[in-house]
From TrEMBL:
Transmembrane segments annotated in the record for this chain: none
Gene3D superfamilies registered for this protein in UniProt: Winged helix-like DNA-binding domain superfamily/Winged helix DNA-binding domain
Name of protein: HTH luxR-type domain-containing protein
InterPro entries: Sig_transdc_resp-reg_C-effctor, Tscrpt_reg_LuxR_C, WH-like_DNA-bd_sf
MF annotations from Gene Ontology: DNA binding
An annotated GO BP: regulation of DNA-templated transcription
Domain annotation HTH luxR-type: ranges: 329-386
Length: 404
């Protein structure tokens, strides 16, 4: 491969750094990174995805090229259910956090199940993977591939990618508040006051609320090959209401397209049943009505010891479960998240200190940190912002007209 010109390396770094401060969503940031990288590091296929930093589960900000929906199931099976080289979970702990598959396999790509069962079937040979990690928290992962017959990724190319990883990781962390009607509502709420929230929500809504939503969770059953074979009415409703901006797989016989997050949760449950992996088999999804869904799966065993039916539970998240997500989006530490919960309950500093075992001065300092990170000036504004972004959409979706 030809050496990367110094000027091009500099331009890529500067443009990516600028993008990290301007991209409105994680998906647009990852798309911009891929576009700018391609000039210096040519590739034929790519997979870039945001991740849940606590579980390393792929989340909803995804950029793919030359990866059809039919490749998702074998890709997830390899990542979560099979032993292989250069897994994203391993790569997040690798010192450089960027590595080629040929390096991981000692130059023998045939040793990798992913190389043979996924990449080769798509016409790809060499692969480089990387993780956008800060400290021990990974906010996105990526993979670039080249067509069979093309040269491997060079040390210079890996070095360029490696230099971008912490910058993009920080950008993905800052973009954790995904653009949505609730985001616009939050910004306006801080300017016009809490009393205007209902009117703003009406203007921002993309779809009418659910008038006949099921009261409880739904259940989908998957066979040993990972195919959905049965689904109750509630599951059909909830999965049919998933926000179309969420990555979706092929259609199912039940009328909804299976979200990729659901396929990952099922794959992780099967991995647990086989004794691999420890991260929870769960994920969350947005619906087009502003509510969020919790997905959890468990895999049963057949009498002979083979993996059997996997059951996926799909349930709407109660509002109380969203506050930690809001605190995490504002990049708060665990202690700051704890203080945020107490501030929302309007507890006095002395009460918070008693409940947390901290001094009153420490509580005051943490409270100020919380206000600064949320870009508000008071506890009232903090509660208004968290309500506007994480509670009001669910509240509004549950409203029923009196005459209905």
């Amino acid at each position: 491969m030809t050496a990367i010109p110094t000027r091009l390396r500099t331009e890529v770094r500067e443009e990516v750094a600028q993008l990290c401060g301007s991209a409105p969503t994680g998906r647009e940031l990852l798309a911009g990174v891929a576009s700018r990288l391609r000039d210096a590091v040519p590739f034929d296929g790519c997979f870039l995805s945001s991740t849940d930093p606590d579980t390393l589960m792929f989340t909803d900000q995804v950029v793919v090229e030359a990866m059809p929906p039919t490749a998702c199931r074998p890709f997830f099976h390899n990542e979560f259910e099979s032993d292989d080289f250069n897994k994203f979970a391993d790569l997040a702990r690798h010192p450089g956090r960027v590595r080629t598959l040929s390096d991981a396999t000692g130059g023998q790509l045939g040793r990798s199940a992913r190389a043979m069962d996924v990449n080769a079937r798509l016409g790809f040979g060499h692969e480089v993977r990387f993780s956008f990690t800060v400290g021990d928290r990974t906010f996105a992962v990526g993979s670039l591939t080249r067509e069979i017959g093309r040269a491997d990724f060079t040390a210079e190319e890996r070095q360029l990618i490696g230099g971008l990883l912490p910058v993009v990781a920080d950008g993905m962390r800052a973009a954790a508040l995904v653009a949505s009607p609730a985001d616009a509502l939050a910004g306006e709420a801080l300017r016009v006051g809490v009393d205007e929230i209902p009117a703003l929500a009406s203007e921002a809504a993309e779809a009418p609320p659910v008038l006949m939503a099921p009261a409880g969770p739904g259940l989908v059953e998957f066979d040993a090959a990972g195919r959905p074979v049965s689904a109750c009415d509630a599951a059909v409703h909830w999965l049919g209401a998933v926000d179309p901006r969420e990555p979706l797989g092929p259609p199912t016989p039940f009328g909804f397209r299976l979200p990729l997050a659901a396929a990952m949760v099922v794959a992780r449950a099967r991995a647990h049943a086989a004794g691999r992996g420890s991260a929870p088999a769960e994920a969350t999804l947005r619906t087009r009505y502003g509510t969020r869904l919790l997905l959890r799966a468990v895999c049963a065993w057949e009498p002979g010891g083979a993996p059997g039916v996997t059951r996926l539970v799909v349930a709407p998240i109660e509002a109380a479960g969203l506050a930690p997500e809001a605190a995490a989006a504002f990049r708060m530490s665990p202690r700051e998240q704890e203080v945020t919960a107490y501030l929302a309950r309007d507890l006095a500093p002395a009460d918070i200190a008693f409940r947390t075992g901290l001094t009153v001065d420490t509580v005051a300092a943490l409270s100020q940190n919380v206000l600064d990170k949320a870009a508000v000036a008071s506890r009232t504004e903090l509660v208004a912002r968290i309500f506007a972004e994480y509670y009001y959409p669910a509240h509004n979706a549950g409203c029923r007209p009196l005459s209905a």
